[in-house]
Amino acid sequence: MLEVQIAGVNWKNPVTVASGTFSAREAARWYDPGRLGALTAKGVAIEAWEGNPTPRIAETWGGMLNAVGLQNPGVDSFIEQELPFLENFETPVIVNLAGHSIEEYVAVASRLNETAVAMLELNISCPNIKEGGIGFGSDPDMAARVTEAVRQATQKPLIVKLTPNVGDIAAIARAVENAGADAISMINTLLGMKIDVHNAKPVLANWTGGLSGPAIKPVAVRMVWQVRQAVSLPIIGMGGIMSGEDAVEFLMAGANAVAVGTAGLLDPAAPVRILKEIEQFMELRHYKSVEEIRQTGRMMGGRTERHG
Fold this sequence. Notes:
By secondary structure, the chain is an alpha/beta fold. Helix content is 35%, strand content 20%.
């Protein structure tokens, strides 16, 4: 009933986690991470990144800002320290790729190509690094160039993570589809800022950060719906999913699966709770499969999908 297939990889259910919000070791204190459809690791670069200076997290109304800057220990450390633990679960592992340049993205993808990682997620959408990241994801030509280069460097299914901080997200989606992407994940955080009015200075040391949480969900749902009209690739939808019904919104908008992010920082067991709530919704509404939910979305208001 809950099984889905994303870019040729079988998931037991449509729920994964958003990169950077999840640690399998920590989650295992609360639930069995193997219950999820896929496990998405934090961004990994070819070498260790220190990330941005602190403070780099701030609460906002309906969400949070983060400017962590993809801090990570580097791909070799990930392969030696984290991947063996992730392999304990009979669940596909997705690794998020970080880089300052096309060459760095290619290098980390190549390094992971001979591992047990099931899928790669190309992060061209992080608003918190000065080079790469959003710079690649905001221009169709650059997005296509980095996607094509990484596609040539690996045989693993390639997910491209899109930024919402663009004028026409569908154009970016079409560009990465044409360049060889196997799936799309969306959306990453919206660029935001918070000012401490009593001290007259930005709350974040980086000044700006990525806004996530329920405040961005309507934007995320709209963008998933727009991209579904434009491409035939599987879509992993995310952005403010706090409940099973939130997840169903993304499925009806055209997503094939969903990722839970900020909710897991508030409630460590949120991903499995949301999974259970999806299942309860399906039973209540007599849906026999995730695809049936998507089919319902295709018929909303008489609109039909052009693709997918």
